[in-house]
Amino acid sequence: MHKYKNISNGHMINSYESYAVRNPANGDSLGLAPISTADEVDTAVQAALKAQKPWSEISDNERKEFIQRVADVLESNSDYLAKLITQEQGKPLAGPGSRFEMQACVGWTRVPATLELPPETVYEDDERKDVLQRSPLGVIAAIAPWNWPLMIAIWQIIPAIRMGNSVVLKPSEYTPIATLEMVRLINDVLPPGVLNTVSGDGTIGAQLTRHPDIAKIMFTGSADTGRKIIEASANNFAPITLELGGNDPAIVLPGTTAKNIAEGLFWGAFLNMGQTCACIKRLYVHEDDYESVMAELKAVASQMTIGNGMDEGVLIGPIQNRMQYDKVRELVSDARMNDCDVVEIGEVPDGGFFLPITLVGNSRDGQRLVDEEQFGPALPIIQYRNLGDAIASANKLEAGLGASVWANEPDQASETAQQLEAGTVWVNQHGAIHPMVPFGGHKASGYGVEFGIEGLKAVTRPKVISIKK
Description:
This protein is α/β, with parallel strands linked by helices. The chain has two domains: 6-244 and 445-468, Aldehyde Dehydrogenase, Chain A, domain 1; 248-435, Aldehyde Dehydrogenase, Chain A, domain 2. The protein has 15 helices and 22 strands. It has helices spanning 38-57, 60-76, 78-89, 98-110, 149-162, 177-186, 202-209, 223-232, 258-270, 290-301, 322-337, 368-371, 387-395, 410-419, 452-457; strands at 6-8, 11-13, 17-22, 29-35, 120-124, 128-136, 139-143, 166-170, 195-197, 214-220, 240-243, 248-252, 280-286, 341-345, 357-361, 378-384, 399-400, 402-406, 424-427, 442-443, 446-447, 460-468. Strands 14-15-16-13-12-18-19 form a seven-stranded mixed sheet, with helices on both faces. It has a six-stranded mixed sheet with strand order 9-8-7-10-11-21, with helices on both faces. A three-stranded antiparallel sheet has the order 5-6-22, with no helix packed on it. Helix 2 (60-76) runs antiparallel to helix 4 (98-110), helix 3 crosses helix 4 and helix 9 (258-270) crosses helix 10 (290-301). The longest helix has 20 residues, at 38-57.
């Protein structure tokens, strides 16, 4: 069985302990992933610390060239890495799946290499001139999740190294293999130590985030782990970018033509089997439109094939891990016991962590499937009579990552969009992120932003040079 390795200072590291990583579609072993030790965590951080200063001292244009070479590596290895993602994470190769994830990796690498963040004169008069400069922070600890393991790792890595930082990345213990392979390939074109990895469970993440030489933490994952990372950062005063998931509401305005929005609603909710932070997790529909929206969603869902993502024609794969599989089943069971209208669509293969596409009508506030983030292919649909009540319900939870409003004409949605408490509110689309557009959450969905110029600023330290004339 192949044993995958971490990389530190450009060298492959032979870890003493390892564990088997399995395909969620069939349970097959994909290989052995390393478990880092505390010493290996320290070695990786020290390698990054040593590499960071010379990396920051090369010219901005040179760093841009390095990052374009990284994009070339990702592009030329896209098929190899996409297949690893599908086997390890479960999302299909086709549709908005693993090949889509690799396209996003390339895009989110090339775009930061085109952006400029020059010094800015923030004040000037006859007596003084004040210039705001941006300098790198140092070593950045990046903690990636299991749902989009390579894409979100790239979101963390590329802006950091673009601005002259070095990185120690810890992939999720559920999906380490594709990420470790991506980093191995990237290291062929980066100077040693600029990008390093450690791996294992949350204890390794804790060792990394509280390390005294960490200058910034970037984390995507659960709110519970986010709180632990905040506590760990007290050890090194590292600033943090946290993306802690969401329970995104989508509101369909009264009279909206269901057929026109059904496919957008479906993928907004069931992208990556619902295992996406900015997926529709609660759907609000006016009582007069409820039947038509349900009928159109059923029609779209009935066209989807559920199965092993390596098989041609499959667009819906398994849940990634047993823990999440059991949670979604439990939430659907609770909805059924609370007299919800549970509609399960699609033939589910034997073996693996497969669940049917599930539409849950007659859902209400206070039910677990509504109030808890399901992170799976089960969508509660909530009828409303008064739009103000729907907005109040959408805003009542602690989560505030994304939201969307759906209408026949976009202008109809603007007032409702302004009232929703979320980092991003989309109109007639959901989860439509872009590498030039800042993305981040409100409330318990975290703080800080990624992407675009604002994302570059987030991995720098502002410094003012104040000159008396």
